[in-house]
Specification:
11 helices; globular; 12 strands; alpha+beta; 381 residues
Length: 381
């Protein structure tokens, strides 16, 4: 209540004051505590004001999660995983109503965008998409490949499916529409793997696709990531629950959370270093290519000696500029990024677990460190 009064006094503009004041209306209070114990712990509570909360928000908070089945699909060693449970139809109604109340202009833009989408693809958002979705959603990054021309994360989205036949019908219609597009340079293909059907776009070095694996639709940037999910689900690959860094934070995850998030901090820091090294190697490769151009200019045919000299002068300027660029990149990495990454080596993993009920939201955050570091105890809060 006090926060709303402060916002009304301090914020410029009547509209901005109204929006922020309205966003605080359904809640009573926010509280929390933090402490150190083999890492940093933070627990917070957001209490719901039932008397001032609207019907849609109360419905969202009254939804009781049934557990996250998606976790058993996630491969060991994954960099990131986040899972959520909610009713999409209730959430969508609340989102639309809140947006209309707080920002009419944005609400109209989104409404027009949805109308355009539904007309172009001949689909109805609620009947053809939301209707087959279950109540669990997740996304993950299993790994990041540095073998190609640029870093490529193996990212995948997971959607619980309660009506597979309807979901397949919708995706088939989208595929048909895409194939009809004159500007569409790639076509869909199908691959069988371990008894599962993977539909993918034939794009060189990428192959994004999707597959129905038991209770979930898996959509990924690469078919290799989908195959890894299939192997994990069938028990042929270890799941995330066997990962040492996941185990560090696993204790905070309740049996039936509304949402949870896990980040392998140790692996993320290692990937940042590898990506930085990759950027240096790419710059050095370009520099090597520029140096190789000198011989081509010196042995090439030109109408006049002056023309060759101009080419060599331009080459020399380009070489010096690239050498300076590579030198500055190395200097910045070695002077800033690399020492920072080194100083963060004690960080291992991060987890957050959120539980929502009729009273409000409880969230627990834990940043785990190397055992024996940052020991704390009672009274740190």
């Amino acid at each position: 209540e006090k926060m709303k009064e402060i916002l009304k006094e301090k914020l410029p503009g009547k509209e901005a004051k109204g929006r922020l004041s309205a966003s605080f209306e359904p809640f009573k209070a926010l509280g929390g505590a933090s402490w150190f114990q083999e890492g940093l712990w933070v627990k917070s509570y957001l209490l719901l004001n039932k008397e001032k909360a609207d019907e849609e928000l109360l419905q969202m908070y009254s939804y009781k999660p049934t557990g996250l089945g998606s976790l058993s699909y996630i491969p060991k060693g994954s960099v990131l995983f986040a899972g959520f449970t909610f009713d999409m139809n209730i959430y969508w109604k609340y989102f639309q109503k809140t947006l209309e109340e707080q920002n009419q202009e944005t609400a109209e833009l989104i409404s027009k965008g949805i109308e355009t989408f539904e007309t172009k693809w001949e689909l109805n958002l609620q009947n053809d998409i939301f209707s087959w979705m279950g109540k669990e959603f997740a996304y993950a990054i299993s790994e990041v490949s540095l073998e190609g021309m640029f870093p490529m994360p193996s990212y995948f989205l997971m959607i619980e499916v309660k009506d597979e036949a309807r979901a397949k019908e919708t995706l088939t219609r989208i595929k048909e529409k895409l194939s009809e597009e004159k500007k569409m340079p790639f076509q869909f293909a199908v691959e069988e793997y371990e008894g599962e059907e993977i539909n993918f776009l034939q794009i060189p070095f990428l192959r994004p696709g999707y597959a129905f694996v038991k209770d979930f639709l898996i959509i990924s940037t690469t078919t290799s990531a989908i195959k890894k999910v299939i192997d994990t689900r069938k028990g042929e690959e270890d799941s995330l629950s066997k990962d040492a860094n996941f185990k560090r934070v696993q204790s905070i995850f309740t049996e039936k959370p509304s949402s949870l998030c896990y980040l392998n901090v140790e692996k993320s820091l290692s990937l940042i270093r590898k990506i930085a090294d990759w950027a240096v190697s790419m710059q050095e490769m370009q520099l090597s290519g520029i140096r190789g151009e000198k011989e081509r200019i010196e042995t090439g045919e030109f109408e006049t000696p002056e023309e060759r000299e101009k080419k060599l002068e331009a080459w020399q300027k380009g070489l010096e500029a690239k050498e300076k660029e590579v030198k500055n990149l190395k200097k910045n990495l070695e002077g800033t990024l690399y020492p920072l990454l080194e100083s963060m080596k004690l960080l291992k993993s991060l987890g957050t677990s959120t539980v929502t009920d009729e009273e409000g939201t409880e969230q627990l955050f834990y940043l785990a460190v190397e055992e024996g570091e940052l020991k704390g105890g009672e009274g740190n809060g």
